[in-house]
Amino acid sequence: MTLGFCSFSSGSSGNSYLVCSRENAIIIDAGISAKKIVNGLQECKIEKEMVKALLITHEHIDHVRGLKTFTRQYHVPIFATSGTLSHIPGGGMFSKYMQSITESIPIGNVMVHPFPILHDAVDPCGFRITGSYSCTIATDLGVVTDTVQNAIEDSDVLILEANHDMDMLRKGRYPWSLKRRILSNRGHLANSEAGWALTRMNHPPHKVL
């Protein structure tokens, strides 16, 4: 059972991804408008009934901006850590769809494995989705911990953050408070750190995005 992947949007303006098989589709993050997510599903020829769940990595607005409107249209369960669920802006309006995820669970015909990451959010996580193929998403993390390194091993497709060049960031025009946040171990992963995580893998992925 091959898993397909599509990025609807990635970056500070909004994040949303699709992981799908022939029968099922899972959306990871809803940081863009519901309209853009629906348009992305239509372009990928994903029927509404195929969408089985929405996974949320953390509560920052560029990961949940379209969540409320999308949930009104699709009525799918929302899976995230309990800390993330409790801090989603306006989450009380669609709390009946929320389900806390603490360990591996089946969704449709795949398994979803959450793993903790370090980021300046309440309880952020990445996700590894497995069938006969595997897709791992590790974004918005300040450092590659041993837990993250283990989670990204032996993936068919790996989506790994590579956010900045450290010298360019330090010399750039951002205020120092923002530079310090990005550079911290709860900020964002530098390009060199992402590269180092890949080079020290024992079982590299077939494809890296």
| Percentage of residues in DSSP E strands | 25-35%
Tell me roughly what share of residues is in helical segments.
25-40%
Runs with pLDDT <50, length 5+?
A: none
Work out the helix count. 8
This entry's quaternary arrangement is: single chain
Structural class: alpha/beta
Radius of gyration computed on alpha carbons: 17 Å
The global form is globular
> What is the tally of beta strands?
12
Order of helices and strands: EEEHEHHEHEEEEEHEHHHE
> Strands across the major sheet, in which order?
1-2-3-4-5-6
Largest sheet: 6 strands, mixed
Distance between the termini: 21 Å
Mean pLDDT: 94
Structure description:
There is one protein chain. This protein has 209 residues and is of the alpha/beta class. Helices cover 28% and strands 25% of the residues. The chain has eight helices and twelve strands. It has helices spanning 34-43, 61-64, 67-74, 82-87, 146-152, 166-171, 176-183, 191-199, and strands spanning 4-9, 16-20, 25-28, 51-55, 78-80, 98-100, 105-107, 110-116, 125-130, 134-138, 157-160, 207-208. The strands form two sheets. A six-stranded mixed β-sheet has the order 1-2-3-4-5-6. Strands 7-8-9-10-11-12 form a six-stranded mixed β-sheet. A hairpin with a 4-residue loop joins strand 2 and strand 3 (25-28). Helix 1 (34-43) packs across helix 3. The two termini are 21 Å apart. The relative contact order is 0.14. The mean pLDDT is 94.
